[in-house]
Amino acid sequence: GTTANANSTVESNNKSSWVSYLKGGAENILKEAKSASEKVVGAVVNASNLYSNEKLDEGQLIFTTVTSRVFAISYPDPNIVDTIQQMIGRKFGDRAYFFNLTTVPYPKEFFGGRVLNAGWEQFIPPSLESMLTVTAAIDRWLLVCPDNVVIIHCQNGTGPTSLALASYFIMCGLYQSGTSALQYYATTRYPKTTSIITPSQKRYVEYIEKMMHHTTITPHNHMVILCNLTLNAVPLFSVNRSNCKPFVEVFENDKKILSTLREPDVMRTYSTDDGEVEIAINMGVKGDIRVIVYHARNYIGGKMSAIKMFQLSFNTAFVEADSSTLRFPKSRLDGIARHENKFAPKFSVSLSLSVQVDKSTEDCVYQVIYTIYVVYTQHPTILDTT
Hints:
The chain has helices spanning 2-22, 26-45, 81-92, 128-144, 159-171, 178-189, 199-213, 365-377; strands spanning 51-56, 59-65, 70-73, 96-100, 115-117, 149-153, 223-231, 243-244, 246-252, 255-259, 270-271, 277-285, 288-300, 303-315, 325-329, 348-356. The protein is α+β, with helices and mostly antiparallel strands. It starts with a helix and ends in a 9-residue tail after the last helix.
């Protein structure tokens, strides 16, 4: 039946990612884009923006209508999952697909098998490929049948849910700006909240925006050498607020590849007299990168104690080939707000780097996606929402 075929379509996308789907050819994608503009974008434009709570037998579930076909819910209490399934079943039958963006997976049989467990962290962006895979799965399910709907949740309805829905709204043409797409969701779900996403998570939404609407920006597959990390002012994390002893961890595609943590008597302490902090990295990286900067404290019980000062995430595919530095002002760093008074007002971080341009390397997955997006931009009427 339709549901069985739809399930297999989405599951196929989960296994092979969006790249296989895109390689099917521009002609089919253009047809489906037109269908999306009629079925999905139209539904978004006509959304009721209803915000409501539905009382359950053993608790309460916040059930938000983001569009007439896209719904966000609060994190379900594990004790009432069966009740939730019954409620959603009564409301939508087998037309709903469940997107679980938390790191806690649901059983395969949950929700009749119509569930995607994304495994995203709450406060850091997922891999760009995972973002695109989830976005594609949403798209495919909504295109299978005009009556299909999507139900999505994370831990608290902010970061991951914002990422997924803003990316989808950009992809289907409702918004060309990541900021506007995020604001739409925030207004719908959290009208009184000023920030529902971390700076790095927002950066990843901006990557989707760049691929969709900035045709001069071409994602690449080149190695990027990270040379040095420079803090333009010394954070004051010591007990007397006069210095810090920083060290760095670097993650490449969620795997730790560097830690500059050393014995306390080897590590340098920086004071305000030093003016800035410079830490050598000297490593080649490619893909999704996360840099975490800590303040090392004294040993407690034979173990080093550390405080996370801030972190940042980015994807090397969007580092311009002629770039020598990436600069992140305080507003573009994650976790600063927790220790705002320990940073200078104009605090910023710079990564000196070198892009190793190699024209013989194969196109990265983002390049394949970008190529299809160029086709979108050459046919603006397909994504016309007026």
